[in-house]
Description:
The complex is a heterodimer of chains A (392) and B (249).
Chain A: H1 2-5, H2 9-25, E1 29-30, E2 36-38, H3 39-46, E3 56-58, E4 64-67, H4 72-82, E5 90-99, E6 113-122, H5 127-144, E7 151-156, H6 157-166, H7 171-180, H8 184-194, H9 197-200, H10 207-210, H11 218-232, H12 242-257, H13 263-273, E8 276-278, H14 282-290, H15 298-313, E9 322-324, E10 337-342, E11 353-357, H16 361-364, E12 373-379, H17 380-388
Parallel strand pairs in A: 1-5, 7-9
Antiparallel strand pairs in A: 2-4, 3-4, 5-6, 6-12, 7-10, 8-9, 10-11, 11-12
Helix pairs in contact in A: 2-5, 5-15, 7-8, 11-12
Chain B: E1 5-10, H1 13-25, E2 30-33, E3 40-43, E4 46-54, H2 56-65, E5 70-74, H3 75-81, H4 85-88, E6 89-94, E7 100-107, H5 116-130, E8 134-138, H6 141-150, E9 156-160, E10 176-181, H7 185-189, E11 192-203, E12 205-210, H8 217-233
Parallel strand pairs in B: 1-4, 1-5, 8-9, 8-10
Antiparallel strand pairs in B: 2-3, 3-4, 5-12, 6-12, 7-10, 7-11
Amino acid sequence: MPTEAAPKEPALAAQTERIMGTFSRGGYEQIATPVIQPAGPFLDSVGEALRARTHVFVDRDGQELCLRPDLTIPTCRLHLARHPGGNRLAHYCYHGLAFRYQAGAAMPTHPTESHQAGIESFAVSDREKEDAAILALTLAALHATGLKQIQLTIGDLGLFAALLHAIPMPVRWRRRLWHHFWRRDSFRRVLMRLTSSEALKAHELPRDLVGRLDPANPKAAEAIVIEYLERSGLGIYGTRTIPEMTERLLAAAADAREAPLDLAAAALIDSLTLVRTPAPQAVRRVCDLLRPHKINIEPALVSFRRRLDLLDRLGVDTGEAEFSAVFGRSLEYYTGFVFQAVSPKLGTTNPIASGGRYDGLLTDLGAPHPVPAIGSCIHTERLHAALHGDGP
Amino acid sequence: MSAKLVLALPSKGRLKEDCANMLAEAGLAITKSGSARGYKGTIAHLPEVEVNFVSSSEIAQFLKNGAAHLGVTGEDLLREAVADCEERLILRAPCRFGYADVVVAVPAWWTDVQRMADLEELAMTFRRRHGRRVRVATKYMNLTQRFFAQHGVSGYRTVESLGATEGAPAAQLAELVVDITTTGATLRANDLRVLNDGVILRSQAHIVSSNAARWSNHLRAIERELLDALARAKHPTPKSQPRPGLTRH
């Protein structure tokens, strides 16, 4: 690969300079993070599936390390190292290598290493305004390199969260649906389970225990669980505790008595996941879906509309953008606004830039309280290919 | 050097004996050759076969990169070491020994966890309570990841364990295990219980052919001869012990 990449490099450097210049003028501090990172924070926030596409290895001390698969988590870690609370206002930009393990041989479209130029913003409390600013700056950087044709897709996981909150159901069901949201098939499976009173009865759990637990009386439940375990002679050991297990058994007991989720509500949830429409029509489409159900998610829709207005004011043409309600489902740490820029030349499988809001990630990485955070990154080799037409 | 058919066999333990017996019953007894340490062997009836004795975990690697044409090793080790098993290897025939089930097992007192789906529910509450993901101790990192993904279980971390995996939950190194078992006795002795749908793989030793090795028509003919001899020796039903099944409580 180096020999093939060599002739491109001057052009790539000039392109990078334009991108980073745009970020710096936007008030972003340029930082560098280590290429080798502890694997733990990535595995904790992304999950074990990460191993299949990341170079994870063990050093001589037995520490699990990885070649950074992206630069967002390293930037978060740098921010937390500087400000352990995480809640200090900060704007960072970077340009560096990210690594992907490619099963079999690496291909030009799927390189093992490629550059990312990105920005990350922390602790800005006006979320919609910052969402718009980040997208506008990302597009400005792309324009600065001469890229003209950009197809934009946007999504907002906040709409989905709002819908789950607006539909009457126990809190634990909301948690369960949100937890499974990132995997389409298991999400559907869980959703269907909630609509079936038979499935809610969890027949595989011991009747003689679950049947005796009263969801309204958790204190008594713990005693019943302890007595059941003593009678069955099972030794209690490990890190899990009896209160933890009681909580889950109580949830099962409550589920067995709960009226199942209304089929119409389940259908509504499912239909929202399917919405794809030009961005200006998104709010109307969502309202059309909600109206027959008399469900109101006005605050989330107001935020969505306000963000579009702010984008228009920043000169971003959202009229051509596509809205997809579940866009952003691919990465478990996104929590709100998400976007992706595609060049018609390279197609949706090779987006040139992508980004989103991840308000929960800093707490996962050790911040004591949630910190508003959003970022984006440009895949510089792809951008170069889109500009110079020599294939990705 | 005239090309020989390299047959990789386990270098020690029960599997080594089972392999020697299987070949002997097919009239293909192995004679140790080379140095006194005996890492090479020959088969009188098939002089163009070179037997290499290697550790059973390495046999998967030999087959994967083509250093051996044929080998005998456990399906569990193959599927763990070779992600694209179907493309790189051909599982020619099961050997009817080396039985081992790869299973998901949890502390027996976890009354609320009977199926894989319960595990994902547990992962969710565990993370909320402990601020970290529930840990799975295993030496089968790849099998675990694939099986858990198939069942929509994602909220966990794997902890690599190269021995005495069954002790990891009690030692608080992990909350549950993916481990091998033949009768379930070791798991039971450690107060572990296999989930109702927690059998990842019912494994046994297999004769395996490598797609990465250099094959000629001549070597294929020798392979055919060897496989045919084994098939003839093997009666339709196993005469030794029946397939031990998992007993569950």
